Amino acid sequence: MTGEEIPASTIPVVEIVEVAPRDGLQNEKKVLPTEIKAELVRRSLDAGLRRIEVTAFARPDRVPQMADAEALLSEVTSDPRLTSIGLVLNRKGLDRAVAAGCDEITAVVVASDGLALRNQGADTKAQIEAWHTIAADAREAGIKASVIIAAAFGCPFDGEVSTERVLEVAKGVLDAGPDELAIADTIGVGVPAQVRAIVGGIRQLDADIQLRAHFHNTRNTGYANALAAVESGVTVLDASTGGIGGCPFAPGATGNIGTEDLLYLLDRSGVRTSTAIDASQVAATGTWISDQLGLPQAPAMLGRAGWFPAP
């Protein structure tokens, strides 16, 4: 840490959700075998990460990278360290997630109709209605249900997405009583001012909801947005080991913020993580998974630059 000592009671605590096995791999061109994905999950657990978005329950013909969802979960769910999250888009996805033994599900509601229709074949209003059914059925099945508002900072088809629009969607999804509400900068266009406005608006709608944020670093604003989110009261951040996962709407651009780089930022900013995570071990895993994907190097920087000051 740097600077003066901060009283432990005032230090923010943030939970990291590791999303490399899902959002990281889903947007990479190379489809990895199930055993490599399982090894990625195990290495993440060994590094101290505990809550991991393992897979998505999507159509195999649309998302071939996630075609082995059930097989992958069967390889890792017996590990008592793991809290497994499955991404679902509809009721069928929920049924698959429950049958596969997921501890939690995250449902998707897209803030813009343009991306909503192209991604899921239903507009935002219909997705909110579907989420209400998913939330109720997940509760009945005894698993936690989060909802993520995608394209909350901008849409590749509709352009700007206003804060008012995001808050309108947030009100609709909050009515179903999610265990957690997430906001996602799906295409990496957001800036800290938007983060503060959206988080502040959601807090006015529900002061107690657990907030999670998912940022992409497509335009080098992802880490600034993550810190702004923490400073605004967000307590859960998504990140991807190695920074893997491109942006499907911006060819050649980087995708998710890297877990190891985020850990460095949080540590040097006086923010604790909810579990002890070995950033060097995460960085080594980032180098390994990037090699498995055939990337020239991991998009994340810590594996190359190293920690400061050096251990």
Summarize the structure in words.
With 311 residues, the protein is an alpha/beta fold. It has one domain: TIM Barrel (Alpha-Beta Barrel), CATH 3.20.20.70. 41% of the residues lie in helices and 16% in strands. The protein has twelve helices and nine strands. It has helices at 20-26, 34-46, 69-76, 91-100, 113-120, 124-141, 163-174, 192-205, 222-231, 259-268, 279-292, 302-305, and strands spanning 13-18, 51-57, 83-88, 104-110, 144-150, 180-185, 211-215, 236-239, 272-273. Strands 1-2-3-4-5-6-7-8 form an eight-stranded parallel barrel, surrounded by seven helices. α7 (163-174) packs parallel to α8 and α8 runs parallel beside α9. The longest helix is centred in the middle third of the chain and has 18 residues, at 124-141. The model has no long low-confidence stretch (mean pLDDT 95). Keywords: Lyase, Metal-binding. Residues 14-283 form the Pyruvate carboxyltransferase domain. Belongs to the HMG-CoA lyase family. InterPro entries: Aldolase_TIM, HMGL, PYR_CT.
Tell me the number of helical segments per DSSP (H or I, 4 or more residues long): 12
Q: Profile the largest sheet.
A: 8 strands, parallel, barrel
Q: Fraction of residues in helices?
A: 40-55%
User: How many structural domains are formed by the residues?
Assistant: 1
Family: Belongs to the HMG-CoA lyase family.
InterPro entries: Aldolase_TIM, HMGL, PYR_CT
Organism: Nocardioides jishulii
Keywords: Lyase, Metal-binding
